[in-house]
Design goal:
31% of the residues lie in helices and 52% in strands. By secondary structure, it is of the alpha+beta class.
Length: 93
């Protein structure tokens, strides 16, 4: 049974534009392998409430996805291995 989830990722702000686009494209490919992207928004650069890996700013991106719960294990593994990713939050709607 497929369920709806929301995924928010925070990238390092110091990355060059082409690097951040490449990383975003890589994440989208990982998402489309296991899930269907229902909606997507670029929240832009925002100040963080506290420093993460010595960064005070972050690039935020949000997705609404539909997938099987079993597919999330592989997705979370890939998210944890990404070096330019400061944080991510994956919640069920």
């Amino acid at each position: 049974m497929k369920r709806m989830y929301e995924l928010v990722v925070v990238f390092e702000p110091g990355a060059k534009a082409e690097e951040s686009e490449k990383l975003l494209k890589k994440l989208q490919e990982n998402l489309t392998e296991k899930a269907k992207i229902v909606e997507e928004k670029d929240w832009g650069k925002k100040e963080l409430a506290y420093p993460i890996k010595k960064s005070r700013m972050g690039l935020f991106h949000w997705w609404k996805i539909e997938t099987e719960p079993k597919a999330l294990v592989a997705l979370e593994k890939k998210l944890k291995l990404e070096e330019k990713l400061l944080r991510y939050l994956l919640i069920r709607e």
